[in-house]
Design brief:
The protein is an alpha+beta fold. It is built from two helices and ten strands, in the order ααββββββββββ. The protein has two domains: 36 residues; 146 residues, Lipocalin (Beta Barrel), CATH 2.40.128. The protein has a ten-stranded antiparallel barrel with strand order 1-2-3-4-5-6-7-8-9-10.
């Protein structure tokens, strides 16, 4: 009986050594992994495509008279720069319009899960906008849903790149089930 007991004791000792060695290896591996910095996300080509809008842009155009206000000419200056990291483009605006003068802040981005561009804007007239967009070739199309005076409305903002330093734009609105009407049209020139 004694030899079996000695063999079991030796086997237990060997198993304990292997268990301790295994635990030690797992601990070392965890330390190595914990010290490796996580991979930072990088902007993709969709984010970089927003780079078209970087810089200082001078805008001018005309609003159409209608239920949204008086018609007339408007002007504006947009200063667009990348937020740290390159995922979002931040726009600071100053404008003069028939409805009054004001300032605005907008953030452009790209939602990888939705595969859509995003636009969130706020201005000194108390307006807040959210739109989703896509780009096909040289044409950007942003769509939104609005509630104006208790009525559901759809918005569509289209930008057509004319050159690396100019584009035209048009904003249209429609009742929830109706046709679009042009609210505003204009052009923008990159000055810096």
């Amino acid at each position: 009986m004694r030899p079996v007991s000695l063999n079991l004791q030796k086997g237990d000792a060997i198993m304990r050594k292997f268990s301790l060695a295994g635990a030690f290896i797992v601990c070392i591996a965890c330390l190595v992994v914990a010290q490796a910095p996580p991979q930072m996300a990088k902007p993709g080509p969709e984010h970089k495509r927003l780079g078209y809008f970087t810089g200082r842009w001078q805008l001018e155009g005309e609003t159409k008279p209608g239920p949204f206000g008086p018609g007339g000419k408007f002007t504006g200056i947009d200063h667009n720069d990348w937020m740290e990291g390159g995922f979002f483009l931040v726009s600071h605006s100053d404008f003069k319009s028939p409805m009054g003068d004001g300032t605005g802040l907008a953030v452009f981005g790209y939602n990888l899960e939705e595969k859509a561009y995003t636009y969130n804007a706020f201005n000194s007239m108390g307006e807040a906008e959210h739109a989703e967009g896509k780009v096909e070739g040289d044409t950007w199309t942003w769509t939104s849903n609005e509630n104006m005076g208790g009525k559901a409305m759809r918005g569509r903002f289209t930008v057509k790149e004319s050159s690396p330093t100019s584009y035209t734009f048009k904003f249209e609105m429609a009742p929830d089930t109706g046709d679009f009407s042009t609210i505003m049209e204009g052009k923008a020139i990159k000055t810096k």
